[in-house]
Amino acid sequence: MVFDFRSCLKCVSITVFAVAATSSAAQTVSTTSPDKRNRVDVVVSDKGALTFSVSRHQRALIEASPLGLILQNSSPFGTTLGERGAKLSASKTVTGEDRYTLPVGKSKDVRASYEESHISIETGQSELARLDLIVRAYNDGIAFRYVVPKQPGRSALNIQDEATSFRFSDDFDCHGLNQGRFENSFEGEHDAIKASQFRPFHLFQAPVVCRTGSAAFAIAESDPQDYPGAYYTGLNDGTPGLRVVLTPRKDNDPGARFRTRAAQLDVSTDFKTPWRVVMMGDTNGQLIESQLINTLASASMIADTSWIKPGLSAWDWWNGNAFPLPSPHNANGQTSGMNTATYKAYADFASEMGFEYLLIDEGWSVGSSVEPTANADVTRPKPEIDIAEIVRYAKAKGVGVWVWLQWQQLDAQLEEALATYERWGVKGVKVDFLNRNDQEIMAFYRRLLSKAADHKLMVNLHGAFPPAGLTRTWPNYMTQEGVLGAENNKWSQRITAKHNVTLAFTRGLLGPMDYTPGGFRHTTPADFPAKQSFVNPYVMTTRAAALAMYVVYESPFQMVSDSPPAYKKPDGSPEDGVDFLKRVPASWDETRFILGDIDECVVIARRSGDSWYVGAMTDGAKTISVPLNFLGRGAYKAVVWEDGDHPSSVKKSEIDVDAQQSLTLRLANSGGGVIQITPLKPVKKRR
């Protein structure tokens, strides 16, 4: 392998050493973050076992834990590289800095310094004589990835699994989502669990978030490329910690049992696995600010991103498309549904609200369904709906149109379909029911995002695996599901205020999530069962909490999910909080965690231009003081929306503030609040 340092903006402190083949002493390579708080040690023991450990503030978080790949071969359980007989042959340590700009997301300009070690291992196994390791330490975490060097005369290498494990130094308090199976929609509650309760039959998805008493960390991955996604299962010896489990390929022989193949690596060139990531901070809240997942991902593959635009979107599916059509769209008795008149009404609504988009969900194309069907044609709208006409009408009102697709139906006509949508003037596609993270689906992700970019189409994926940095590599990948979101209010009682708060500290750490907020029919948790409905559903949180989701939840393509009449009072005036929806951006220049704790409450501030937006959500009723020390110099006007006398009401107030002040928010049970803060005088731009 040739080490390429060109991506470093600065490279210093280069250390090179070789270890003699006869050496019997353990060898250690240490990598330390620029602020000296985080450290990862890679050790090859005197018996040739490859391990790593992680510490923060000189306190161990992860004790000596196995590293390595498991080859699929004739051995009943495969051959584990790094288990024994390994030797450290060379190491190089450098420092570097990554600077990049994100067109959309939770912060615009990112600057990340790191120390990096390149480690070469002689495995002692003839099937793969050498395995390289790249280790990085940042101020907000550590990461490592394996590199399989190019194998002359060989094109493929089959990987059964990884030996990668995380052996915790204590029985930490953690939160995680155990799916228990490989194929799923990546949705669920991120429940509290002690580290000692992780079991070998569990399959936790990223992130697994833990607290130590003096620190917090989250285990995740970044930059998957052509490699299966990971789950995390308990250690076989019952001690606190986790082990990586790779999702098997779909083309495995059903009788393979222990020898399933997770990945077939292309070794005609160097092959890099995803980064195994440990996000780190002093508190859970610090993890919310981290951009580590994006920083580790491959740089953008799209040169011109000027066409990628964030925005809020009107949407049909959640509310059931059941509302009286206004004039003139109700001519000749036309009713709402999957028809041209309805989506012209949505375009009027989006334009009136100042939203950038409207989304046409399932059912617009011939043969549309949630499964692949032989008669499906995603280039042909049903007779009652004219997509090109809707796009023309919406465009005249300043509104862009997205369309929904089932992934296999789209894949069967991918190039033709995307070219058709571009010709119609469609702005983006929502692709649904992927429900996989195996190696083969990764190829579809890459194919879709690449071809969509060729046709200047943005993308929203549902049934998608947790974010792993692909939104940096493909900035047209605006948002995704993989979250137990608002749709579940239609058929379950799982979308509680506690769940909503916990998402900010768990799923929300990794990247955008299409939770689909905007439900404007509110009731209490006690009254929710009696009012639950599939069409025009209720939510069991307050109006102010609904507004807060637009700040707390990152999603550059953000739904406004209720039907147009839900945003008006019976007299036709705007409902409480509609004025905030007309103001709130969908993408941010800066993000700050203010206060809160997992399962209890969260307060986040995000900046767009010169204005700040604060979102607060809580499980139980409480009064909180929000410090404004994130503001710059000068005076500001704060507009506050907080919980009113009942779940659907909002109290609005205005006050002049500065950075030395705090604002009090009174949050109801299952409640929330938002603040918009703007300078009283124009802010001088930095030269």
From TrEMBL:
Residues 32-297 form the Glycosyl-hydrolase 97 N-terminal domain. GO terms for molecular function: carbohydrate binding; hydrolase activity, acting on glycosyl bonds. The keyword Hydrolase applies. The keyword Hydrolase applies. Pfam families: GH97_C, GH97_N, Glyco_hydro_97. It comes from Asticcacaulis excentricus (strain ATCC 15261 / DSM 4724 / KCTC 12464 / NCIMB 9791 / VKM B-1370 / CB 48). This is Glycoside hydrolase 97. InterPro entries: Aldolase_TIM (IPR013785), GH (IPR017853), GH-type_carb-bd (IPR014718), GH97_C (IPR029483), GH97_catalytic (IPR019563), GH97_N (IPR029486), Glyco_hydro_b (IPR013780), Glycosyl_hydrolase_97 (IPR052720). Residues 317-483 form the Glycosyl-hydrolase 97 catalytic domain. The lineage of its organism: Bacteria, Pseudomonadati, Pseudomonadota, Alphaproteobacteria, Caulobacterales. Residues 1-25 form the signal peptide.
